[in-house]
Specification:
This protein is an alpha+beta fold. The protein is built from two helices and eight strands. The protein has a single domain, classed as Lipocalin (Beta Barrel), CATH 2.40.128. The N terminus is likely disordered.
Amino acid sequence: MKSVLYLSIALSFILFSCGNGNSEMIEKVAGEWKLQQFINKNGENKTTDCDKETVWNFTKNEAEALTDGTNVMEIVATAPDNCKWFGFDAKWTIKDDKLFISTTNVGGMGGNSNAGLFELTIVTDTDMTLKIMGNQYVFSK
């Protein structure tokens, strides 16, 4: 019986620690970011002026859960009026130390789009770099 108690305490600590790490990362990612560079898998910088002016707001507002029940939050990417097709809405969360984003839009209509688990290679209060499928997203606040 004593071993079951110790095991449950250990599991609770592990789960709490993992959740706490996610909440710390959520706090770092949440907020308004601007894309400084989008470098595709061929190493080409495909960032346009409209991409650089579009504000990606990683809100903490709850969005509709994913089909597997995962709780997510909203991304509202707002482009200037003269940048048609650059704004978008998406969902995000932190999962397994990676940033899940349901969709991205770089380059407007016919541009580049990614979805899935992005590797967080840099996350500070002012800089964030993401990688997925050979593509790199470089943001600043």
